Amino acid sequence: MTRTAPETMSETDVIDLLLAQHAMIRDLFDEVEQAPADQRGEAFTRLVRMLAVHETAEEEIVHPYARRKIDGGDGVVDDRLEEENEAKELLTRMDEAGPEAPDFMENLLMLRAAVEAHARSEERYEFTQLRGHTTEAERRAMAVGVKAAEAMAPTHPHAGTESATKNVLVGTPIAMMDRIRDVVRQAMGKRP
């Protein structure tokens, strides 16, 4: 079983942290795909949480920094945000329908392709430049910021909040509602 508390990861360089999280996300997709139907819900819940907190942290910490620091930062980040929103919309529909939905596996494959393409684009266009245009101290500070943002992030996707400002304004109340909903559902024996 893949660990899914990204805010507790040991990486101290933001790029190393995000690359490790991309690997964790790939592993979670594998878990969901390979899980027996009656256990798919638990694996999918971990995947949803990981994607939600990871993207929120990137939107709050990494993308704003990339806009200022890398060549063509606005365009690079705008392209990543567009990709994120498309994936969030599909993930939201899947999260609401649950892993029992008849089109779940088909949608999971589409989501995986979109998420992996997005991750490759981040790694190629954003992370490489960030590593080249930042100091080790800046990357350590961003890693701390990413972990803090992940600890406070919503645990379910919320399309339309792909900016740092929107995440800060609505993210905390949404995160609180998500976490309360998760606890209540868990107490009732349902998938969060």
Radius of gyration: 16 Å
What overall geometry do the principal axes of the alpha carbons give?
globular
Separation of the first and last Cα atoms:
17 Å
Strand content: under 5%
- What is the N-to-C order of secondary-structure elements (H for helix, E for strand)? HHHHHH
Number of helices: 6
Structural class: mainly alpha
Helix content: over 70%
Average pLDDT level: 83
Tell how many strands the DSSP assignment holds: 0
Biggest sheet details:
none
- Poorly predicted regions are 161-173, 175-185
Give a concise summary.
The protein has 192 residues and is an all-alpha fold. The chain has six helices and no strands.
Report what the structure shows.
By secondary structure, the protein is an all-alpha fold. Helices cover 77% and strands 0% of the residues. It is built from six helices and no strands. It has helices at residues 14-34, 40-69, 73-97, 104-133, 136-152, 164-187. Helix 2 packs antiparallel against helix 6 (164-187). The longest helix is centred in the first third of the chain and has 30 residues, at 40-69. Residues 161-173 and 175-185 have low confidence and may be disordered.
